[in-house]
Amino acid sequence: MKTIKSKQEFEEVFSRGKRLNDSLLRIRVAPCDEGTPGRVAFVAAKRIGNAVFRNRCKRVLREAARMSSLPQDGYDVILFSTRRTHDSSPEQVSGSLRKLLGRGGA
């Protein structure tokens, strides 16, 4: 799975991307150059909890991304966890993710 790592890559997605929200997660989707493989990033803000809480949220997001076949070619996606992500199953988050990606055109 190819990931977004640098600050510059994050800023690119933020400037070109579309923001979509759900109760289980928030995403930012940006189209990338044609023929470029898509990338994905997983974010859990410090304000949602301690390190153990945030790591569980990121594990749930990673599994949901695998279940949803992310990253998709032609799209960069940043997944942000919410407090409700921690108590949700990867299947629930994957359903929300598919719904948001459909609304975002990915």
UniProtKB/TrEMBL annotation:
Statement: the UniProt record of this protein carries the keyword rRNA-binding: no
GO terms for MF: 3'-tRNA processing endoribonuclease activity; ribonuclease P activity; tRNA binding
Q: Provide the E.C. number(s) assigned to this enzyme.
A: 3.1.26.5
Region Disordered: list its residue ranges.
85-106
Could you list this entry's UniProt keywords, alphabetically sorted.
Endonuclease, Hydrolase, Nuclease, RNA-binding, tRNA processing
Q: Which GO terms describe its cellular component?
A: ribonuclease P complex
Q: Which InterPro entries match?
A: Ribosomal_Su5_D2-typ_SF, Ribsml_uS5_D2-typ_fold_subgr, RNase_P
Q: Which NCBIfam families match?
A: rnpA
Protein name per Swiss-Prot or TrEMBL:
Ribonuclease P protein component
Q: Which organism is it from?
A: Thermophilibacter immobilis
